[in-house]
Amino acid sequence: MTREEKSQVIEELTAELANNANIYIADISGLNADTTSNLRRACFKANVKLAVVKNTLLEKAMEASEKDFGELPSVLKGNTSVMYSETGNVPAKLIKTFRKKAEKPLLKGAFIEEAVYIGDDQLDMLVDIKSKEELLGEIVTILQSPAKNVISALKSGGGTIAGLIKTLSEKSE
């Protein structure tokens, strides 16, 4: 690979790092062709971009990036693949699903919404991370609950303020 080609790859990796808030670094070495194909297909379906990278080039891209990857460059040893995703927990779920049938992919580390996770032992925690959409759904549900109580109290209280107060006080007891 020429110096110009390396520079081009570093620029492309730096752009990918800048455009993605959720970055997983994994080891998929040793997977047979069929399993690798299945992993790539599952990534495509889950809207996860998977790319095999050279450690030195990814490290240079991390250095050139405006993001603080903390200790993440320390995991760049051996075979390295990068997974980019819009949703923080999707690659973790994908890795966990594949691990039911094989020992790999192994999670080396992850950069999720500016937080750094190092090691395969972080996989279960990353699976449990809620996406923004899931959190918003929970917040909306929590906020709707009191409104539903008031509406219910209005209906059962006969539509009067006195009835509403009586019904709400009975529910709080």
Q: Would you mind describing this structure in some detail?
A:
The chain is an alpha+beta fold. Helix content is 54%, strand content 17%. It contains seven helices and five strands; from the N terminus they run αβαβαβαββααα. A five-stranded antiparallel β-sheet has the order 2-3-1-4-5. β4 and β5 form a beta hairpin. α1 crosses α3 and α6 packs across α7. It starts with a helix and ends with a helix.
Give keywords.
elongated; alpha+beta; 173 residues; five-stranded antiparallel sheet
Structural class category: alpha+beta
Order of helices and strands: HEHEHEHEEHHH
Helix amount: 40-55%
- Biggest β-sheet: strands ordered side by side in the sheet: 2-3-1-4-5
Cα distance, first to last residue?
A: 74 Å
Strand content: 15-25%
**Total beta-strand segments:** 5
Largest sheet features: 5 strands, antiparallel
The general outline is elongated
Mean pLDDT: 86
- Total count of helical runs of at least 4 residues: 7
Radius of gyration, CA atoms, in whole angstroms = 24 Å
Please mark out the parts with pLDDT under 50 across 5 or more consecutive residues, or reply none: none
